[in-house]
Structures are given as C-alpha cells and as structure tokens.
Amino acid sequence: MSTFTTIGFIGSGNMSSALAHIIAEAVPRLPMVLSNRTHAKAQALAATLPKAEAVTNPQVATNADLIFLGVKPQFMEDALSSIREVLAAKRAAGQPFTLVTMAAGLTMDTIRSMVGGEGDPIIRIMPNTPISVGAGVIQYCSKGVSPEALAEFADLLKGAGTVDEIPENLIDAAAAVSGCGPAFMYMFIEALADGAVACGLPRAKALAYAAQMAEGAGRLAKLSDKHPGTLKDEVTSPGGTTIQGVRILEERGMRGAAMDAVIAAYDKTMELKNRS
User: Fold this and answer.
1) Are 171 and 135 spatial neighbours (Cβ–Cβ below 8 Å)?
2) Would the pTM of this model clear 0.70, i.e. be above it?
3) Cα separation of 70 and 34, whole Å?
4) pLDDT tens by residue, 185-243
5) Percent of residues, the chain, with pLDDT higher than 70
6) For residue 250, with 0-12 CB atoms within 10 Å meaning exposed, 13-18 middle and 19 or more buried, which class applies?
7) pLDDT for position 190
8) Rounded-to-integer distance, Cα 227 and Cα 240, Å
9) Side-chain half-sphere exposure of 120, counting CA atoms within 13 A
10) Residue 175 contacts by C-beta under 8 Å, 6 or more apart in sequence?
C-alpha cells in the first residue's frame, strides 16, 4: 500500500516544476496540489501535469501528505506561517504528513521549529538543475520518517538521476559541489567553446562539442574505477597537444580556483544557516 496519496508543492519555481514532472512520470495517476505566491505560476505548472490542481498554501497542507517546500530560505518562515494551523489540526487528528524542504542553509530542526512541530516527519533534499533531464543529483536526509516511507520517497524521485542519502552535517558540503557545480561547469563549457571559436570553429559546433565532451567525460569519470587524475593522464600524450593545455590551466590556477569556488559556496551556506 502506498504511503503517499497526494503530493503537494508550496512554491512552483523551476526546481519544484522539475520534481513534479519527475514524480508525475513515475506515478502519473498520483494527484498533486500546487501553490505559489503568484497563483498564475501554479496554474501554468498544473496545466503541464496529468493530475494537478493549483490551490492556496493552506489547501496544499490540507490535501497533501507529502508536502514539498519549494521556497527560498528568506521566504520560508512566511510560507510556513500560512500552513501552521492546518498542520496543527492534522497532528491533532492523527492525519500523517511528511514535509520535504529544499532550502539551502535551513536545517530540518529549523523547519520543524518554524512550522511548530518538533516531531514532524521531515526530509531535507538538495537537488540540482540537471534533474530536469534525468541526469541530476539529489542528496537527502530525514528525521522521523519510516524506512518504508523513505524508500518510497526515493523511488518517486529515481528518475532525477542519482538519489543518495547523506547525513545532514554533510549535505551543505555536498550541495556546494552538485548544487552549485552546474553553474561552474556551464562557465567552463562556455569558456572552452569560446577558445574553439577563437581558433575558427563556428560557435554552434563549438558549444555542441564542448557540452558533449563534458557529458562524456563526466560519465566516464562516474563509471570508471580509475581516479580522475589517471583518466587525465591517459589523454595527455608525452610532447602532445593536451599537456600544453593542462600546463596553461595549472599556470592560471584552475584547480585552486575550482576549489575556492566550492568553498565560497559552502561558506555562504554557513552564513545563511547562522542567520536562521
């Protein structure tokens, strides 16, 4: 028997939209209720899903038993205040529900405190944008969720790509790599394409080749049992062309810049956490 009977989304932005479509593809007949500060945005998303309705925040909380909180950290407290009474009534009536937060820097205990339910089942996820094409990463952790419900939750999202459980004390570091990393990778793809354009390659082909190369290199790094350094060495023939490019990247501090980018993203997350 299914644990979750209706899926709810408070916030209908890009990430909520991607997650809603992943779930709808996994279980097309599963009802969904969606809300957003701009109601038209929730209506537009609902129109693209097989069994969805645009409603208000309290109606999401009333009807859904798996409630995704697709709200930016700075707006989370206001959003949760709009459903606090509904969830209190559900607790009193013994009606089960599980909250799913994807807000950077806000711990599960912080969300519980905001909503007034210290024992509420809660899952924290950190998805990245490539989930929209089935090649993303979702890290998750939980409190008060049964193993059966957690397994069903992970199964609903398996179409996203890699869905991996991780302790909450590591989720911010993980998100600095997989959550922020796509932006860094897009910059690198663009820069490689710009270099090829400078060498005379048409831009459309340069972008297509750079993007495909990044996809292929990533897949090989994931599937191979070899260290990335070994894979790099296999491309760099003695006295060849690749080693000259590697030399320039090392001279310009590419490794240090990449490390610092991840650390800076992590530090910003810690700053947001300390403000909450």
Assistant:
1) no
2) yes
3) 10
4) 999 999 999 999 999 999 999 999 999 999 999 999 999 999 999 999 999 999 999 99
5) 99
6) exposed
7) 98
8) 21
9) 30
10) 104, 126, 139, 265, 269
> How far is Cα 135 from Cα 272, in angstroms, rounded to an integer?
28
Cα distance between residue 62 and residue 48, in whole Å:
23
> Hey, what's the torsion of the CAs at 17, 170, 122, 124, to 10 degrees?
-10
Q: Are strands 32-35 and 98-101 parallel, antiparallel or unpaired?
A: unpaired
For 60, 210, 211, 214, the CA distances from 192, given in Å and listed in that order, are 45, 6, 9, 10
Burial string for 28-55 (b: 16+ CB within 10 Å, else e) reads eebbbbbbbeeeebbbebbeebeebbbb
pLDDT tens digits along 108-152: 999 999 999 889 999 999 999 999 999 999 999 999 999 999 999
Question: How many whole angstroms separate alpha carbon 191 and alpha carbon 180?
Answer: 18
